[in-house]
Amino acid sequence: MSVTHPHPTPQATSRAPGIPGIKHVIAVASGKGGVGKSTTACNLALGFAALGHKTGILDADVYGPSQPKLFGLRGKPRMTAERKLEPMERFGVKVMSVGFLVDEDLAMIWRGPMVMSAITQMLREVAWGELDVLVVDLPPGTGDAQLTMAQQTPLTGAIIVSTPQDLALLDARRGIAMFRRVNVPLLGLIENMSNFCCPACNRVTAIFGHGGARGEAKKVGIPFLGEIPLTMQLRETSDDGRPVVATEPDGVHARHYIDIARSVWSGIGAAGRPAPRIIIE
Ligand code: ADP
Q1: Which residues pair with 226 in a beta bridge?
Q2: Is 13 exposed, middle or buried (0-12, 13-18, 19+ CB in 10 A)?
Q3: C-beta of 36 in contact with ligand 1 (< 6 A)
Q4: Which atom of ligand 1 is nearest the CA belonging to 40?
Q5: Rounded CA gap, 21 and 173, in Å?
């Protein structure tokens, strides 16, 4: 009997087959909308790219696709000769969004199976090429659509974004339970809109409280990845298609995201290593 490490490439952990050329697929999720999940997914993807990883982002938030706006992209993706969709590219990141493909009002009324088929197409019928990491911006919530997606996407792991107040954390807890149910590893929790520093008087105020997500992460036994403050600059740059990690990579806000990207990467480096396979000879 011998123990071998059969495959040097990290494997996805869900039941869904992997996507050729893509090493890691990471979901960014939230228990509810408006907590800054898309802004975080965008800047995190840029953080991976800043660390030198080949990165893509798939905006699977069919009910409110934000990545075109966050990346300042518009238009329709082209079709390659192999009849695959060509992702758009900005700031060194490949971007595909349901927002490029269908009218937002139409996607709003999609039911579970339609959502899943659109996402499967965007995962597998897009010419992503070779990627170290594909960040997937999932629709908020923990309903059937999200559960199916978590199950059918070959995820290395999931990151949950929450604001610090109790109500948001309650939803985040449901998100954590959902990923656990389908055996997707939780890479960690990010506290967004953590503190507000008044630009006029420099006073720091914890509008939604502070530290709630750190406590929650500890309670449920997942890594706490960091805090992102609530700032005008983040709001403005996001809404203007000038995400901070791309436009002010040396600034203090970009640093938060890059640090989080670094710790997620070191986490998946370890978690992605396949379990040894026992071969009986
Ligand atoms: P979600 O994807 O959870 O619905 P978004 O990323 O679309 O949330 O963010 C909702 C709004 O909050 C956007 O206008 C965005 O610019 C803003 N926002 C997100 N994170 C921050 C932050 N840390 N500071 C200030 N504004 C933020």
Answers
A1: 190
A2: middle
A3: yes
A4: 6
A5: 33
When pLDDT is averaged across residues 255-271 and rounded to a whole number, the result is 89
Q: If DSSP codes are grouped into helix, strand and coil, which group holds residue 214? A: helix
Kindly report the pTM of this predicted structure: 0.89
Q: How far is the CA of 48 from the centre of ligand 1 (A)?
A: 20
Res 277: pLDDT: 47
Using a 6 Å cutoff on CB, does residue 237 contact ligand 1?
A: no
> Considering only CA atoms, which residue is closest to atom 15 of ligand 1?
235
Q: What's the 35 CA to ligand 1 centre distance in angstroms?
A: 6
Q: Can you give the length of the chain in residues?
A: 281
Enter the CATH code of domain 27-268: 3.40.50.300
CA atoms of 4 and 8, how far apart (whole Å): 11
- The CA 167 to ligand 1 mean position distance, Å, reads 17
Domain ranges of the chain: 27-268
pLDDT band at 9; cut points 50, 70, 90: very low
Q: Measured between alpha carbons, how far is residue 251 from residues 2, 149, 246, 247, 262 in Å?
A: 51, 35, 10, 9, 16
Whether 281 shows a pLDDT value over 60: the answer reads no
Per-residue pLDDT, 272: 46
CA 133 vs. chain centroid, Å, equals 10
- pLDDT per position as a tens digit, 96-124: 998 998 876 776 677 777 778 888 888 89
Higher pLDDT, 110 or 13: 110
Sign of the alpha-carbon dihedral angle for 149, 150, 154, 155? positive
Tell which residue, 232, 238, 233, 234, has the closest CA to residue 69: 238
CA angle in degrees (0–180, nearest 5) for 169-170-176: 80
